[in-house]
């Protein structure tokens, strides 16, 4: 290897590597954040439906076997909120509003991030899993789990509206511009695009302020928001087609492959 080739190789080795599946909501939040902030990175595509996240190679990056994860030089990190905080602090040029230096604003944003994992996410993810996604992953649908998840999802949306979106700003905890918490939670809610429109309207419809906040977050992060969500919209079309065809809840392996190929 020449000296020049060696340097290029070293630079490639040091480049931030981001392990994601764009059908995963925390993965999308990381990708949008990186793109909006012009941070250079390499996207390593993982396909959860093909169980790539469980491979021994990936478990060296994230022993928990989940996406997203990053490798920055010799430093590996998993958990999307920890990754967002790291990226916001490690890369120069990230605007302050994403993770404010002000201790009190930062503490409030951490508070929303912690709340997200045990509330909104615990409602949204199992709801979508148990209404549409399970068969694609080779699992049975569970209507009772879906009903319980919907209760937590709806109460979380009410709390976002009555607590986190109170204040004069358009964004969470009174922000005038979005923070990593806005991005993380809006990406979480976006997975509802996969469910039947009447179900989505029943759940989101009563929360006008939440709907406006979703639009504001999209607008603040365009065009990257739309580009990163393209795969979700393709999956949405596929699920809509299946519903129109009146497909049964049972999905055989050829259906699974077809859904995957459209994703
Ligand atoms: N708390 C984690 C959640 C990560 C997570 O749930 N990842 C999902 C995709 S959205 C995953 O990898 N699922 C595969 C599995 O758990 O086997 C984060 O925020 O990064």
Automatic annotation (TrEMBL):
Residues 102-239 form the GST C-terminal domain. It catalyses: RX + glutathione = an S-substituted glutathione + a halide anion + H(+). The keyword Transferase applies. SUPFAM superfamilies: GST C-terminal domain-like, Thioredoxin-like. Residues 14-95 form the GST N-terminal domain. Its EC number is 2.5.1.18. GO terms for biological process: toxin catabolic process. The keyword Transferase applies. Belongs to the GST superfamily. Theta family. This is glutathione transferase.
